[in-house]
Structure formats: structure tokens, C-alpha cells
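Progress report, Aim 2. The chain analyzed during this reporting quarter is listed below.
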Amino acid sequence: MNTVSPYGSWKSPITSDLIVSGTVGLGQIAIDGDAIYWVEGRPSEAGRSVIVRRTPDGKIADVTPPPFNVRTRVHEYGGGAFAVAGDTIYFSHFADQRIYCQTLNSPPEPLTPAAKCCYADAIVDKQRNRLICVREDNTGEGESVNTIVSINLNDGADIQILTQGNDFYGSPRLNPDGSQLSWICWNHPNMPWDGTELWVAEINVDGSLGEKNLVAGGVDESIFQPEWSPDGVLYFVSDKSNWWNFYRTPLNPPLARGEAKIETSLREQPEIEPVCEMSAEFGLPQWVFGMSTYAVVSESQIICTYTQQGKWHLASLDLATKQLTNIETGYTDISSVQARGETVVFLAGSPIAPTAIVQLNLATSQREILRKSSDLSIDAGYFSVPQPLEFPTENNLTAFGFFYPPKNQDFAAPAGEKPPLVVKSHGGPTAATSSSMNLKIQYWTSRGFAVLDVNYGGSTGYGREYRRRLQDSWGIVDVDDCANGAKYLAEQGLVDGARMAIAGGSAGGYTTLCALTFRDVFKAGASYYGVSDLEALATDTHKFESRYLDGLIGPYPDRKDLYVARSPIHAAEGLSCPVIFFQGLEDKVVPPNQAEMMVEILKAKGLPVAYVAYEGEQHGFRRAENIKRTLDGEFYFYSRVFKFELAEPVEAVPIYNL
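Predicted C-alpha cells for the chain:
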């Protein structure tokens, strides 16, 4: 029989200690020969990222020894931090950002010289004995310089620039015979989901690039993940039709061999062919390097993943007939697709299964879980299954999200009581939330909270038009959608409208602070390294995002008025509810002063406010003790604000003006 206890006071087995001790982050996957490699982020090792190798006999072992941390700072968000060739691994070490070379069972040795440079998205050019990768050079004054370079594997100091002149580069890829290189690039003020270009060049005898030829893309077309097929066809994903769909170039696209040289800008792009057109997204916003939603298996087949209405599917694409056939997996979130022969490996999760690395045999259709992000054994009676939610928002439009009702098999609420609500505003803002199992959400629902995870206008997965709802409207559309989602649930009688909070990190922290400052819907909030001063963000952030706000707000300083008007720090008089702030003190994306200025204003106003800062943390928290402190701290804060008793004591957070 269930124990009757108020919402928020339920005792849960999903504790912060359990979450941080029993979970790892799973990242970049690579297949080389019969071995499978991936990256694990381990909170229990101070957030260290480790390359792990699995051999065909099922043995799994760490490759990178302590204290090596496989993580690059290119664009600050990193990704694409390692490459494999045979028994040799090349990876970026976070501490010094040098590339290290490691053969199996041998210690890593530095390849690149000690310099203020970072590297990412490397591929191995075996026939020329070199790496080709993106380099971010911070040795000069002012903005860093991004290029695609080659690195001699016999002499890591021998670094040659292959292409330069654009603000950003990514996805260098060699064609099958190594005679051509493709890549994408883009320029300020675009972000990669706004507009990128796909280029191809022949490789000269000396390893330099010949004439560079524009294949596809532009300032209003986003190209994602170019890949070559074994027969020399270049495939890529483009959103030219509103949806990120598949396209390809002709077989071995002509590169003007023997023709008179003309300016590249005057060249006609080679004809491209749509391969799979549908109202679905086969691409993602390129926040990090090394993202992969598909793998070319053969000249006739691609294995891919796509999303519709917030749910991801695995599928096989016949390249001759252009027929797409779904592969049933039971997973709702799939990414990082890699393939070699009949073996496909990918990251996958579902509402009832934690994210895992999954291997699929195409010949037998057998699936095997190679590694789970969590081996915790928790009864399903404590898990809330997300319900896809569509709700009305401003301008007679519809917004989306996932609703998690409270769930704990041991408890029931008193008759007539409605649960408090936490609205989650994802980061980005050009990103999306997922329905995959999230123990941090289950932490809340198993204690008696409802959670709404919002895919507000501007989120990905719903087409370019939905993504562009945030154009010039950040701090308005996202805030309206979060507020309207909460009001909708209250109107439906599913939550307590007097006990609704909002929480978010980074851009989601900005949405949180805007919702608390400019709307009167929420009664409390939690900002994780959130933006409070848009001007400070525009003038004091890293290169990758330094012009991001041009599209979200307007060009700065021309539209300084908008930056001031939409900054919570300049409208704090409108903030009249308690807020807790969490901040990494080494954050280069949203510096600590963004939170600290807001804290001082709220202190002066006499509002309940808490500030928890972490030494050694950057943008996002990776250390187990800090993740635990943050989960418990936010919960403790709400217990004091919404006045419910805790089932078990947690470490108190100092709250000013309570």
C-alpha cells in the first residue's frame, strides 16, 4: 500500500550519490579494423574523458592512462578529439591541447609542439603519413585563426596549412583513393546551422591542395556531415528544402582537370541530386565536431538516423532506389552512427533505457549492448515515462515538449493536491531536448515533482522554419513557449500553478532568467551558468559564438537597445521570486560575472537568492561532487521556497534573504 505524503516529500532510490557514482558520459565512436573505440566522460575521475577499446572477443579496456584527458577546446565545446589508424591513436589532451600519439600498451607521446593551438576533427591520411584536421591558432593578437592543416606523423612540428581564409572549418574528409579532400566552412555572423559551404579540392603530389571548388551550400543553406562512398560519390545533408535531407554529387564530381583556371567564385556548382526527401531531420546543429547521423556502408547502402516530432529512428537507405526502410530498435534517441562492413555501432537510449553503445549486425539483425552509461538497477515503478506534448503558444502557433508526471511506486499524494512543476529550458538555444532516459529528471519525478522539458521555438528537429522562429526573437519566443507550456499544464489540472519553477543551463539559463524577470508565471528558478547580460556575452565570449547573437537578437552595437532591453540584469526590478545560481569559475563561454552581478542585485532587493560556484569547472559540470551538490542544492532550495519537508536530509545551501 502506498504511503500518503505531500509531493516533494517522497523518498526516492534515485539519489544524487547513485547518479554520479553509477553513470558515465558516452561520446565519440570510431571503428578501426575489428576494434571499436569510444570516449567515456567519468564524473568519478574529476570529469576525465577516456578512450576505451573493445576487441572482437568482447574485452573492454581503457586506452588512455591517467592523467590524460581526451578533450579539445576548439570552439570551446570540442568534439572530434581522437582518430585511430591500426593500433595507433591520436588524441587531444585537454591540459595542454597538444595532439598525442599512442600505440597500444605504450604511453602517449606528444606529437604537436607546445603552442597556443588546439586541434579537432582529425582524419589519418595513410598514404601521405599525416593527419588532416582543424586547427584553432591562438598565438596571435585578437580573434583566433581557424584553418585545416596537415601534421606530419614523423615530425609533428611539420604543420602545413591546406586551406584558410574562412572564419570556421570542419569535417575534412578524404575520398576513397585519397586524391580529393572535402570540407565545410562558414563565416561570421553565421553559425553552422545557418549557412555553410561544402568544398572539394584535388590533392597535389606535394600534399597541398589544388584548385578549390564549391560543391553546395551558401549563407542560407546548412550543410552537415559530408561523407564519401566507396565509389567516389560525395554524400551530405542539406536543409535547402526546410528539412535536413540527403543529397549527393555526381560520381567523381568534375574538378576542371585540364581546364583553364578561373576564379572559383565564378564556377558553377556541380549538379547535386536529392537522395531522400521527407519532412524529417537527418542532421543536427554542429555544436561539436565529429557528429554523425549516418554511415556509408557500401556503394548501395547508408545506415542513418532521423528525427520526427522529437523521436529518432534508425533506417537503411537504398542508394539505388532511394528507398528508406526503418530498422526497429525500440530506441527513441540515436546518434553517433558508425559502420564497418556488416557492423554498425551507434549511441542509443529510450525513456526506459539509459544511453548505451549498441552494435548491430546487418547480416543477422542481432543487436548487442557494448556499454551502458549506467548499470544501475532501479525498478521501473520509480520511472516517469515522458509524454510527448503539443501546446498552443503565441501567434496561434504550436510548441512542443515532453511532460513527465510524478512517479514513485511507494508513494501517493494527499487527495486534491497537485504536484509542483519544474520546466526545463534546454541550452543552445539551437538544440533540442530528448526523450531518452535522464536520471536527473527522474531524480525530480520520483520525489513528487512534475517536469516539462520544452522544445521551444528555435529548437532543432522540427525543420528550418521552426528553427528560425528564434531569429531576432531570443528572449521572447523561447520564454513565451516555456511560460505557455507551464500555463497549459496548470489549466489542464496536471500541476499546481502556484508552485511552478523553471531551470536551465547556458542559453537555457538565459531563458530561465528572462522568464523570471519578464513574465509572472514562475515562482522560483535555477540558473546554471546562465546569461544575464547580453552585451557582456556579445563582447566577452569566444570566437565560435561571438556573432551568434547577430541572428538571435540583432547586430551589435547597432541594436544595443535590444541587448539592453532583453537583458535580465537591466530589468531586475521586475524579478520578484527566489533564484539559485550555479556557476563554474573557469567558464569562458558565460563568465562568472554574469551570475555574480545578478546575485548582488537580488541580494540588494531582499529576494531569496543562493549562489554556488565551483573551482575548476568550465561551461557545464563534470566532477561528481559538483554534479551531486548541484542536484541536491536545487532540490533543497525549492524545499525551502515551496515549503515541503525533505524525506531525507541533503547538504544545505546558504540562502540569502530567506
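The first helix runs from residue 16 to 21. Residues 256-267 have pLDDT under 50 and may be disordered. These observations will guide the mutagenesis work planned for the next reporting period.
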